[in-house]
Specification:
The complex is a heterodimer.
Chain A: E1 9-17, E2 27-30, E3 45-46, E4 48-50, E5 53-55, E6 58-62, E7 65-70, E8 77-82, E9 87-93, E10 98-103, E11 107-112, E12 120-126, E13 131-133, E14 139-145, E15 148-155, E16 165-169, E17 179-181
Parallel strand pairs in A: 1-17, 3-7, 6-12
Antiparallel strand pairs in A: 1-14, 2-13, 2-15, 4-5, 7-10, 8-9, 11-12, 15-16
Chain B: E1 2-3, E2 6-7, H1 8-23, H2 31-36, E3 44-46, E4 49-50, H3 52-59, H4 68-71, E5 77-79, E6 95-97, E7 103-113, E8 121-137, E9 141-150, E10 155-166, E11 174-185, H5 204-207, E12 220-231, E13 238-246, E14 260-270, E15 292-308, E16 315-331, E17 333-346, E18 352-365, E19 371-382, E20 389-401, E21 404-413, E22 426-436
Antiparallel strand pairs in B: 1-2, 3-4, 5-6, 7-8, 7-22, 8-9, 9-10, 10-11, 11-12, 12-13, 13-14, 14-15, 15-16, 16-17, 17-18, 18-19, 19-20, 20-21, 21-22
The chains are: A mainly beta, B mainly beta.
Chain lengths: 183, 437
């Protein structure tokens, strides 16, 4: 009996974000892989606070991931999420301290600082590890996607309801899966 | 008080001169040029006349349609991240203010030539100095303030001071409903004295008062205006409308319990969209958007009540103004004109009624991007026996720099003033140097 080994593929493309300073911080992700549950990473993912900003501004994580929120700034910070995906308040904490939060439900989580109103960040919590955040040019790359038919979604803070696309991975890389985000 | 043998005022003047010399290169550009690091000609044919792109910029609440975020060179200061909107009403709705102080100055120096006057040539240096405070404040709010100081009289006047709020959701090429509150420029004026007129002489329809003390279309007034604009379905031209309620006193205290009302509507066929493109593409700013092929036609009306002092004591005057306008661009040639019909009912013992009409037509030709000759013909008629006023205004606008303009204009007219003795052949001239920084 012969076994056919089909290799995982990379999905690449470009997101164009209208009316934004550049094309960064769009999250492209496969929302579900049927009948498969992925274990979250063992180590926490870091979302830092520095120079009165959350760094990075947008983070894509697998559901169940533990996120660390270190305060690498020179002032105290406060991290909270107003919901509805996940509502929490980590309190106000000093420089060099870190707080943690587990994100156990998929969706978009907005992060704010109760002290510095200009600070904000977003965490896109997905059911699969197949996600990527676009760079300033809009380029993204999702590696090692196994063969199958998927719905590829895109999210950006200005365009939360962008239309998804259906893709079929058959072994070869999928290139130029592009999104044009506009109103 | 003196020190080191140098008077304080002399030292102050030296310091001021030094500061001005040091700041010269940094203060060479007005508000929006600083904000986007672009030239005045992006929005103006010749200052202050807006080109079609400038109209779209204005109709988008002083934001570059579709490209505001990409072209903004000095980032706005955030008054709360946009995500705070999710917490409303438990949190204050976030806003923004401009990162660069939204300040600009405009100075005009005039040489007036009036052969019929005792002083034939008058140096009006400066004719006026104006301070502008204008800009967007976030996605839905924008503001405009201007203060004028007139050189001849050293009079300081608050010209405009208003804020406007977008009421409808943001959608490319549309700005359907905007509420403007404050001392506003009445949008019923067929062609704006502020951003359309390039001559020192006002448009006759904007300036005319059939009876003494009545409001003029160019007067800024305390009021509330609802206006909107939308690019046409073919992604070109589009509709503009406005309706407002104002004191009817030109910014002064109210003199009766009646608020004046006005309205206007126009439609543009062809040319640049009145709010930019409806298609969500990467916004592009044209280098020279003056030339286009378009035709705009519109109508307007004003109904008010005020007081007049035609004969002695103040009496009530109920009046209406109604008219139409046409604006055509044929490449580099812009032909436009307006007509108005006025009806004033003076409630004195004689219960007099004065009917009046006025029209003007102007041709502007952009010979070069820096040279625009114009000619305008105006006529105003009255039903009470006053002589009709006819006037021809030839003028040349020269942009000697992007922010410096010279205008040389003549006024060839037949009649000095509606109420004065009829005198013919009264020709006047003016040369103006105007700069913005």
């Amino acid at each position: 009996m012969m076994t056919v080994h089909v290799e995982a593929a990379n999905i690449t493309g470009r997101v164009t974000v209208a009316r934004a300073p550049d094309n960064s911080d769009a999250v492209v992700y496969i929302d579900k892989v049927p009948a498969k549950i992925f274990p979250p990473p063992g180590a926490p993912v870091v979302l830092d606070q520095f120079n009165l900003k959350f760094v990075p501004h947008v983070l894509a994580i697998l559901v169940g991931t533990r996120v660390a929120f270190p305060n690498s700034d020179v002032v105290r910070h406060n991290v909270f999420s107003p919901g509805p995906t996940l509502k929490f308040q980590l309190g106000t904490y000093p420089v060099k301290e870190s707080k943690y939060q587990v994100f156990s439900k998929p969706g978009i989580v907005t992060l704010l600082c109760n002290i510095h109103a200009e600070m904000s960040a977003y965490i896109v919590v997905t059911d699969t590890p197949y996600s990527a955040v676009s760079d300033a040019r809009g380029n993204y790359s999702i590696p090692n996607v196994p063969p199958g038919r998927y719905v590829l979604r895109v999210w950006h803070e200005k365009y939360a309801k962008a239309a998804p696309v259906e893709i079929t991975v058959t072994g070869g890389d999928l290139r130029d899966v592009n999104f044009d985000l506009k109103k | 008080m003196e020190g080191n043998g140098i008077p304080v005022n002399v030292r102050f003047m030296f310091l001021a001169a030094l500061i001005l010399a040091v700041c010269d290169s940094a203060s060479a550009l007005p508000v929006f040029a600083r904000r986007y690091e672009t030239s005045c000609t992006t929005c103006h044919a010749i200052i202050p006349k807006l080109n079609p792109f400038g109209i779209a910029f204005r109709n988008n609440g002083y934001r570059i349609p579709l490209a505001e975020e990409k072209l903004l060179k000095s980032q706005d200061v955030s008054l709360g991240a946009p995500a705070w909107k999710q917490l409303w009403p438990k949190a204050v709705w976030p806003g923004k203010i401009t990162g660069v102080p939204p300040v600009a100055f405009r100075v005009a120096t005039d040489v007036n030539m009036r052969p019929s006057q005792p002083v034939n040539v008058n140096f009006d240096f400066p004719s006026f100095l104006s301070l502008y405070l204008v800009g967007p404040a976030g996605d839905t709010v924008s503001f405009f303030g201007s203060v004028f100081m007139f050189g001849a009289t050293n009079t300081l006047v608050v010209d405009r001071a208003w804020a406007q709020f977008r009421l409808t959701p943001e959608k490319p090429g549309t700005n359907w409903a905007v509420l403007k509150v404050g001392r506003i420029d009445v949008r019923a004026e067929p062609f704006s004295s502020g951003y359309r007129r390039t001559t020192a002489q006002n448009f006759n329809i904007s300036d005319y008062r059939p009876v003494a003390d009545s409001v003029r279309m160019r007067d800024k007034d305390a009021g509330i205006e609802l206006w909107g604009a939308a690019t046409g379905p073919d992604n070109r031209g589009g509709v503009e409308y406005a309706a407002g309620i104002v004191q009817g006193t030109g910014g002064a205290a109210e003199n009766n319990n009646f608020k004046d009302m006005y309205w206007t509507a126009s439609y543009k066929v062809g040319g640049h969209g009145v709010v930019g493109s409806r298609r969500e593409v990467d916004g592009e700013v044209p280098i020279n958007s003056y030339a286009e092929k378009s035709l705009t036609f519109g109508t307007y009306g004003y109904r008010g009540k005020g007081v007049t002092r035609v004969t002695g004591p103040a009496v009530e005057n109920q009046f209406t103004r109604a008219g139409g306008k046409v604006d055509a661009y044929i490449g580099n040639l812009n032909l436009f004109g307006a007509v108005v019909v006025g009806h004033d009912n003076i409630r004195d013992s004689a219960r007099r009624s004065i009917r009046s009409s006025a029209f003007y037509a102007e041709a502007d030709y952009m010979l070069f991007p820096w040279l625009m000759p114009i000619v305008r013909f105006e006529k105003t008629n009255y039903s009470d026996g006053r002589r009709a006023v006819r006037q021809v205004l030839p003028a040349v606008n020269i942009a000697i720099r992007a922010n410096v303009r010279v205008v040389v204009e003549g006024r060839l007219f037949n009649h000095l003033s509606p109420g004065g003795t009829a005198r013919t052949g009264l020709n006047e001239g003016l040369a103006r140097l105007e700069f913005l920084f």
